[in-house]
Amino acid sequence: ILVIDDEEVVRRTARATLERLGYTVLLAENGAKGILRFRECSAKVSLVLLDLTMPGMPGDEVLERLKSIRLDVPVILSSGFSEMEVTRRLSGKGPASFLQKPYTARQLAEQVRSVLDEFAEPRNPRKHFRAENR
Length: 134
Known about the structure:
The chain is an alpha/beta fold. The chain has one domain (2-104): Response regulator (Rossmann fold, 3-Layer(aba) Sandwich). The chain has helices at 8-20, 31-41, 59-69, 83-89, 105-120; strands at 2-4, 26-28, 48-51, 75-79, 97-100. α1 links the parallel β1 (2-4) and β2. The protein is globular and about 30 Å long. The two termini are 25 Å apart. The relative contact order is 0.16. The model is unreliable at 123-134 (pLDDT under 50).
């Protein structure tokens, strides 16, 4: 799981929570580093936890770039903005899920499990369409 967030406390907490649950966690403190990290090991990343509001490159731009590298990567978008505001801003850009900040370790764990389970099921072939098949 790749965590891209400019707040160190969020990255540290997410890593601790996810590693305790048995996941391998990669960290990036901004969008540009997150894209580089993802490009280096996109085949190994099962999910991205992405902050929407970061200095430099905002989360919506990072999301587009991640999807251009690997279309089928599930992304949980995280923000202090309301889900309605985020949905409006990202209409059609394809995050798998939304997690309102601040969130608890339990909320993070449940959201990650839910998204991974959803993407593991082949019910929706569009979600599993790979960039290399375009």
